[in-house]
Amino acid sequence: MPPYIYQILHVTGIIMLFMGYGALLARSLANSDNAAVRKLGSITSGIGLLLILIAGFAMISKLGHSFTEPWLIVKMVIWLALGGVIVLINRKPALAKPLWWSILGLGILAAAMVYFVRFQG
């Protein structure tokens, strides 16, 4: 498959992850116990994380990058952090506002790793 297919899947996963977390955080900020929103947000973010991982590794292989490049290691750590955030969202609703900004910051850092670091080298 051409690399742009993996890039589309990767970006789709990112969109799904942020949509899912946005729904879960909005639920927490509204002090809601809506189980349907929790289920939809959890499923959407989980599928998004999976798409990010699979398409990301496929792109790395297809484009010939080494898995030990520093920008890739940072992105993998960000992926792990984003994967663990759902626990805090669901168990600590009081942290919703700081998590909102932290998730945004992690997304910005991940984008910076690609557009500033990868293309500089």
Report on this model:
The protein has helices at residues 3-29, 35-63, 70-91, 96-117. It is an all-alpha fold and 121 residues long. The chain has one domain. The radius of gyration is 15 Å and the shape is elongated.
Please provide the ordered H/E string of secondary-structure elements.
HHHH
How many individual domains? 1
Helix content: over 70%
Radius of gyration, taken over Cα atoms and rounded to an integer in Å: 15 Å
| β-strand number | 0
CA(first)-CA(last) distance: 26 Å
Number of contiguous helices: 4
Mean pLDDT: 94
Strand content: under 5%
Poorly predicted ranges: none
Which structural class should the secondary elements be placed in?
A: mainly alpha
The rough form would be described as elongated
Largest sheet: none
Summarize the structure.
With 121 residues, this protein is mainly alpha-helical. It has one domain (3-120).
